[in-house]
Specification:
20 strands; about 5% helix; six-stranded antiparallel beta sheet; Jelly Rolls; 3 helices; mainly beta
């Protein structure tokens, strides 16, 4: 009601509270959701079927902007990560984690979870570090084979890792459940207004003894490791455990409003600021054209559809792709890519140099094409 009244005051006396509440109920008033790819629509990193091989290390897998955090001395837990076509009514996809190797005895510093990281310039609406600091509500749909207590955490990366944690309960196994959690505003620690990482929001799944035992940090305070996951179940205790997440929303205020649906195009553009792939992952015949520079080097121009966060790292997903020369369409016998250079690239684009062992060797000034899903640009937080 406070949010509706504030908006009514802004719009004027001619707008009633009932009209404002009806607008919220209809899902109007865009750009409320701070999270990227909250419906798990975009998954650039793999071709279909969109399941990563078993992983036991941190990184971005499958679903864009959602970071898989696995850490700990001699951690033994291993999982697969996929974009599942299983979700509550009104949604289609979810991020799914499935344990393939159990970790029944967590190391003291072992921790597992899924998180999203934010640029400071996207969080200024929180008014963090001021007397006007705003409450934040995070809502989501979750489904797990393991019932019990789970922890959601907001972590301030700019100010000595201040944090606040709240618990929620998964009541029924293998059933979609809706959760809504409100966090207090933090009057300490202004967030930097830049493109660096300022905050991390984590859905914890397991934590060793060094992350438990101190009582949960339910108000903003300096980082206390033993207060981060107190009461958290060990999701990795059994092979076959699953955890799914979708329809996540993070917004200013003390109330979860109706989910803000955005188009696939809007979500893709948000994700491409941090990571993008060249070529169509569903078509092996898509091509990129390069020009020969020497017997071992070729080059092509790259201009991203959106400005990336920072100068990206450039890489390849296939070091031995199919290739041919033009305009004669002679098929190359073999190619092993040994280096991709981003020396002449900025966040706005530039020239990409591709070094390798070509057979036959490229000729200066001659055009060549490489086919398939090859190049990527990474500017993740």
């Amino acid at each position: 009601m406070t949010k509706a009244r504030d908006l009514a005051d802004f719009l004027g006396d001619n707008t009633s509270l009932d009209e404002i509440n009806d607008a919220y109920d209809a899902g109007a008033l865009s750009n409320r959701n701070i999270l990227h790819n909250p419906e798990m629509k975009v998954a650039q990193r793999v071709s279909y079927p969109s399941t990563q091989p078993a992983v036991s290390y941190p990184g971005y897998y499958t679903v864009d902007r959602w970071y898989n955090h696995i850490n700990g001395v001699n951690s033994r837990g291993v999982c697969t990560i996929s974009q599942a076509q299983d979700a509550p009514t009104g949604f289609r996809n979810s991020l799914k984690i499935a344990v393939t190797t159990a970790d029944t005895s967590l190391d003291a510093w072992a921790e597992y979870g899924i998180n999203q990281r934010f640029e400071g310039q996207d969080l200024q609406r929180l008014c963090k570090g001021t007397s006007s600091a705003k409450e934040v509500t995070i809502s989501f749909w979750v489904k797990s084979s393991l019932t019990g207590t789970y922890i959601l955490e907001m972590l301030d990366d700019d100010n000595g890792s201040r944090h606040i944690n709240k618990s929620y309960t998964i009541n029924s196994a293998n059933t979609w459940e809706y959760k809504s959690i409100t966090f207090a505003g933090d009057t300490s620690g202004v967030l930097d207004n830049d493109n660096a990482k300022s905050m991390t929001v984590s859905w914890h799944l397991a934590g060793g003894s060094n992350f438990q035992g101190g009582g949960l940090q339910t108000s903003w305070g300096s980082l206390a490791q033993t207060k981060r996951q107190d009461g958290q179940v060990n999701f990795f205790a059994n092979t076959g455990n699953t955890f799914q997440l979708t329809a996540c929303q993070m917004e200013v205020g003390d109330t979860a409003t109706p989910f803000e649906h955005r188009s696939y195009g809007d979500e893709l553009a948000k994700c491409q600021r941090y990571y993008q792939k060249f070529l169509d992952p569903t078509s092996a015949t898509s091509q990129i054209m390069l020009i020969g520079l020497s017997s071992t080097y070729t080059q092509f121009s790259w201009w991203p559809p959106v400005e990336m966060r920072v100068k990206p790292t450039v890489g390849v997903t296939d070091t031995t792709p199919y290739w041919e020369s033009h305009p004669w369409y002679s098929v190359g016998t073999s190619l092993t890519i040994t280096q991709v250079s981003n020396a002449h690239v900025s966040r706005y684009g530039g020239e990409i140099s591709v070094a390798g062992n070509w057979n036959p060797a490229p000729v200066r000034g001659t055009n060549y094409t490489i086919s398939g899903e090859i190049f990527y640009w990474d500017a993740e937080l």
